[in-house]
UniProtKB/TrEMBL annotation:
Belongs to the ROK (NagC/XylR) family. This is ROK family protein. It holds the Pfam family ROK. It comes from the Bacteria.
Amino acid sequence: MCQIVHDPDSIYAIGVDIGGTKVNAGLIRENGEIVWNCRVETLAGQANPADRAIDAITNVLKFLDHNGIEPRLKGIGVGSSGQIEWRTGSILFGTELIPGYVGTPLKQMLKDAFGLPVLVDNDVNVLCLTEKVLGTGRDANHLLCLALGTGVGGALMINGRIYHGAWGGAAEAGHMSVDFKGLPCLCGGAGCLEQYASGTGIAARMRRRLSEQGVPDKGITARDVIALWQAGDRIATEIMDETFAALGTALASLIHMFNPEVVIIGGGVTEAGEMFINRVREEVRKKTMRSFLKGLRIEPTFQGNLSGMIGAALQVWEYDTCDHRKM
Ligand SMILES: [Zn+2]
C-alpha cells in the first residue's frame, strides 16, 4: 500500500464509529459527504473494537490504493460508545457488550498504527458535530443533543463548541435524576432519566407492570411498547406517559440551565417520529418558563445511521490538528 501522508490542508479524513456490535469507517470530505465506507462486525463483542477499528481503517486505505488515490489525509476521527477521556483518547468506561474495551488507549493505538493525528470522543458528542455541520443545528451556537437508545446519552454545544467538562464526561444526561425517590440506577443514584427514557428502561417498566398484572413475560421490547402505545394500548400509554414526563422534566432543567437555541433528540426510541417528538415538545412547554421557550426549537436528529461516522471525521476540522504531536 502507498505511504499515508498527513496533509493538514486536506479536505479528506477517515471517520470511525464504534458501537456495541459493529464498527463503521469511511472516507469523509470536509462538508460531511461520504466518499466510501465499510462496516466491520465486532462478532457480538468477542473482538476488541480497537483491533476492529484498525481493520476498518485499513479497508479504507485499501480502497484508496485500489483506486490509485494518494492517501493525503487530515487525520482520523473516532466516535465511540462509552466514556472517553477526551485528551488522551482512552476508554474509561464501556458497555458490557464490549469486554476488554475499558482502559484501551485507543488514540495512541491508532496514531502508532497509521501515523496520523487522531481524535477520539464519545459517540453523542460527535453526533452533535454532524448536527452542527449538516443537521438542524446548522445555524445554532447553543445546542443540546439527547440520544435515546439502549441507554441515554447527551451532548452540549456552548458558543459553537462541544463542552467536554474536566475530562470529557460532560452532558451525561442519562444519569440526571428526575425523581430522587425514583427507580434505583446502576450509577448509585435514583430516578435517573435513563430508567424512564432509554429502550432498556421502557421495556423493563412495561415488563414489571405486566408481571404485576399476572401477564406472562414474553420478552417485550421497547419497540413493542412503542407500537402498543401508538395503537392506544392502556398500559403502554401509562408507561410512555411516564417516559414523556421524565423527558420533559429533564429537558426543562437542562433548558433552564443552558438556555439552548435548539434541542435535538435522536436514537432508536424516537423512531416513532412526529407523534413522539410532539409529546416531548408538549411536556417541555408545560414545565419551562416562557422566556426560555422563545425561539427554542425541539427537533428530531439528522437522519441516517452513518451520521456517527460522519461526525467522527468532522472532529479533525473542528479541533486544531496542526500540532500533530499533541493529536
Ligand atoms: Zn444513573
